[in-house]
């Protein structure tokens, strides 16, 4: 019988080997159009515009399965503060409506709520498991006819319960230095994933008031839109609108 099961498993493995097919991800390249004012850094073109003493730089950073990520830098040379709000940025195709950028604050709240619910579920599961262990300890203590009724708790079981409840999940620590670095100085592989909370807390561009002489840089996320070759990025800042035209090309390996 064992030999029959072994042969069946072998046949299933061979079947999966020959029938399994993984399609490689498309490679996305997005570059500013020729009419934009562009300078280059480490092989990456960066578009730059200046209006009313505000300098804005925009470049395509990278993509993942869900998002197009642009690297944006804003420099305030005015004599008064300006507000940078990433959620008002938009990306438009020639035939479509503008797609607003993802709001980091809304995503952070959603991820924290899901994490809180998961933590509560884990603690409830740990408590339930601990009660079972404690119940078993009570039965064992009763069967031993222990004369000391106050010592029926199993210390190992309680320790296990406390450990299960208090397990800490490590997080990636990122300082504010990322936002002060020049544009496109970090390789995407060195950054947290967009599925991780630190990405939205520390890496993306978040709502910021820039005082005179200050600058801010961060990533801005848009939903992927593969079915177009032209993209227009609009960056509203106070009473000014900065527009950048990009060309998108997809390569299938």
Overall description:
The protein is α+β, with helices and mostly antiparallel strands and 253 residues long. It is built from five helices and twelve strands. The strands form three sheets. Strands 1-12-11-7-8 form a five-stranded antiparallel beta sheet, with no helix packed on it. It has a five-stranded antiparallel beta sheet with strand order 2-3-4-5-10. A hairpin with a 3-residue loop joins strand 4 (54-63) and strand 5 (67-76). Helix 2 runs antiparallel to helix 3 (155-166). The longest helix is centred in the middle third of the chain and has 40 residues, at 104-143. The radius of gyration is 27 Å and the shape is globular. The chain starts with a helix and ends with a strand. Mean pLDDT is 80; it is low at 147-173.
Short description:
Helix content is 32%, strand content 31%.
């Amino acid at each position: 019988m064992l030999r029959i099961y072994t042969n069946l498993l072998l046949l299933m493995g061979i079947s999966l080997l020959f029938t399994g097919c993984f399609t490689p991800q498309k490679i996305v390249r997005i570059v500013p159009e020729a009419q934009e004012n562009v300078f280059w850094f480490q092989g990456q073109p960066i578009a730059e515009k200046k209006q009313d003493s505000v300098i804005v730089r925009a470049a395509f950073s990278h993509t993942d399965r869900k998002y197009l990520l642009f690297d944006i830098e804003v420099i305030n040379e005015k004599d008064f503060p300006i507000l940078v709000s990433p959620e008002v940025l938009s990306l438009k195709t020639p035939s479509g409506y503008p797609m607003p950028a993802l709001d980091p604050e809304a995503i952070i709240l959603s991820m924290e709520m899901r994490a809180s619910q998961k933590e509560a579920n884990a603690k409830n599961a740990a408590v339930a498991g601990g009660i079972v262990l404690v119940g078993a300890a009570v039965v064992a203590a009763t069967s031993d006819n222990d004369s000391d009724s106050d010592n029926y708790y199993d210390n190992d079981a309680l320790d296990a319960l406390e450990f299960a409840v208090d397990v800490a999940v490590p997080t990636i620590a990122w300082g504010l230095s990322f936002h002060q670095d020049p544009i496109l100085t970090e390789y995407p592989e060195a950054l947290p994933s967009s599925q991780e909370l630190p990405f939205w807390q520390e890496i993306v561009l978040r709502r910021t008031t820039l005082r005179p002489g200050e600058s801010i840089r961060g990533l801005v996320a848009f939903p992927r839109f593969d079915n177009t070759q032209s993209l227009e990025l609009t960056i509203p800042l106070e009473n000014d609108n900065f527009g950048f035209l990009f060309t998108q090309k997809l390569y299938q390996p």
